[in-house]
């Protein structure tokens, strides 16, 4: 499933809920279901700037050149938000991630229904994932030229 299809699926899932309390509860459930992050990545090196709560994001390339993203947060709603980002991006190539148009955030109303600090944190998380993608993409491109 490509990034756009995953985003459409998320939008459909959120459309089931009529009010934002239900959507927050859904985010909390997503956070609880997220696989645990290796404790060695819960360090300042992987901490995201711009988030009120503590959020760690780590990415690496698998043998097929796809980015595998893991994350954790000390805030349960934030953990649900980062779980959505992992679902959208993890398992895709750096090029797909850096070029992807992120539409689900606005379509489900995440940005306008989060506190300003959480909304800024969301943008910081997206930015960090895209920076990983850009770094991996650049490395892949320089490897092709050699």
Q: Total number of helical segments?
A: 7
Residue runs with pLDDT of under 50 for 5 or more positions: none
| Apparent shape | globular
As a whole number of angstroms, the C-alpha radius of gyration is 15 Å
Beta content comes to: 5-15%
What CATH first level would be assigned? Alpha Beta
- End-to-end separation: 32 Å
At a glance:
58% of the residues lie in helices and 10% in strands.
Would you kindly provide a written description of the structure presented here, covering whatever features stand out?
It is a single chain. The protein has a two-stranded antiparallel sheet. The longest helix is centred in the last third of the chain and has 30 residues. Helix content is 58%, strand content 10%. It is globular, with a radius of gyration of 15 Å. A hairpin with a 5-residue loop joins strand 1 and strand 2. By secondary structure, it is mostly helical. Helix 1 packs antiparallel against helix 3. The mean pLDDT is 93. The protein has one domain: Sufe protein. Chain: A. 32% of the residues are buried.
């Amino acid at each position: 499933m490509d990034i756009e299809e995953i985003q459409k699926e998320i939008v459909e899932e959120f459309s089931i809920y009529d009010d934002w309390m239900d959507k927050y509860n859904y985010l909390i459930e997503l956070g609880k279901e997220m696989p645990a992050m290796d404790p060695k990545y819960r360090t300042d090196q992987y901490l995201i700037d711009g988030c009120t709560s503590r959020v760690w994001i780590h990415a690496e390339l698998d043998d097929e050149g796809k980015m595998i993203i893991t994350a954790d947060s000390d805030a349960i709603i934030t953990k649900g938000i980062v779980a959505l980002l992992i679902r959208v991006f993890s398992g895709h190539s750096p090029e797909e991630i850096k070029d992807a148009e992120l539409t689900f955030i606005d379509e489900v109303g995440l940005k306008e229904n989060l506190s300003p600090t959480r909304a800024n944190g969301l943008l910081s998380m997206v930015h960090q994932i895209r920076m990983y993608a850009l770094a991996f993409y650049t490395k892949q491109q320089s490897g092709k030229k050699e």
